[in-house]
Amino acid sequence: MNWLGAVPTWCWWLIALVLVAGGQQYRVVVAQGDTAEARTELSDYRLEVSERDRRAAAQARTEEQRRQAVADKEGENARHKLELAQGRAAAAESAASGLHGEIKRVRDGHRATCDTIAAQQRQTGTSAVVVLGGLLEESDRMAGSCAAALERSRIAGLSCESVVDRMMVP
User: Fold this and answer.
1) Which of 38-50 are b and which e, b meaning 16 or more Cβ less than 10 Å from the residue's Cβ?
2) 4-34: per-residue pLDDT in tens?
3) Model-level pTM?
């Protein structure tokens, strides 16, 4: 223990201070290394997340474009079907107007015949042919308008159903 007493006290304090400062410096260096590593990991994670977000956005855009294309195609199909239905309705209306003309001709012929042959036997009411002709005209007109409305409704419903079905398929 002789040699310990030969070293002054302030040297012991200096040695202790150097050891503590060295330990602290080592901790700082280790912490800086950990921080650099954490920053690298964070940067990698951010890059990974941004890439994942970019891919998800691209996939969502592609899906949206696919669905829009399906809706556009079905809309075009529905417009085409409606045009065909309107054409058929116009043809049916033309045929119906021809039929109305024929009914009017028969009714007028019947009325003229009845007037000349049996004027004294006619009652005050209208004849059955005239009434039935009027009913036939009215029912034909109503059937045509109902058929056109039902055809438009059917085409719209089928188009909507097709769009929904095709959008569910990836």
Assistant:
1) eeeeeeeeeeeee
2) 777 788 888 999 999 999 999 999 999 999 9
3) 0.49
